[in-house]
Design goal:
- With about 150 residues, the chain is an all-alpha fold.
- It has one domain.
- It is built from seven helices and no strands.
- α1 runs antiparallel to α3 and α6 runs antiparallel to α7.
Length: about 150
């Protein structure tokens, strides 16, 4: 299977995972666990974007236009995970699925745009998005290491 084929498969798997709220409507996760789930969904979208759009490192950089979505998409993804919206999403599973699909799409957009701007930059942008989602989970009660 080609690199792009693997990317499409990863994207399809992430999209399927986004449908979980339709299957298990009663699964209520604490906010911090939900942020970790979002990190996983974004990892799928980010990896798919890199695999589908990656180009050889010796190619010339793309237009500076690609910096705009590469920088804005991660910020929009963080706003999409705003905790005050969770009560709505828990009551409306289709809206919850839409939120998950938006997170995947934003991660895909961010890494694709970053790769179009400069080969290899998608890994940095995607990694930063996942780090931000995990850091947000940390802010909602995740303890790493020997914490309480």
């Amino acid at each position: 299977m080609s690199r792009r084929g693997i990317g499409v498969a990863v994207l399809a798997l992430a999209a399927l995972a986004a449908l979980v709220p339709l299957v298990d409507r009663h699964a209520e996760l604490p906010i911090w666990q939900h942020h970790l789930l979002h990190a996983g969904l974004m990892a799928g979208g980010a990896l798919a974007g890199i695999l589908i759009s990656a180009r050889p490192r010796d190619t010339t950089g793309g237009s500076a236009f690609w910096l705009l979505p590469a920088l804005l998409a991660p910020m929009l993804a963080m706003f999409a995970m705003w905790p005050s919206a969770y009560s709505y999403f828990e009551a409306h599973p289709s809206g919850h699925v839409l939120e998950h699909l938006v997170l995947i799409a934003l991660a895909f957009l961010a890494t694709t745009a970053a790769e179009r701007y400069a080969a290899g930059l998608g890994w940095i942008v995607g990694g930063a998005m996942i780090f931000m989602a995990v850091a947000a989970a940390r802010g909602f009660g995740v303890t790493f290491g020997n914490g309480p």
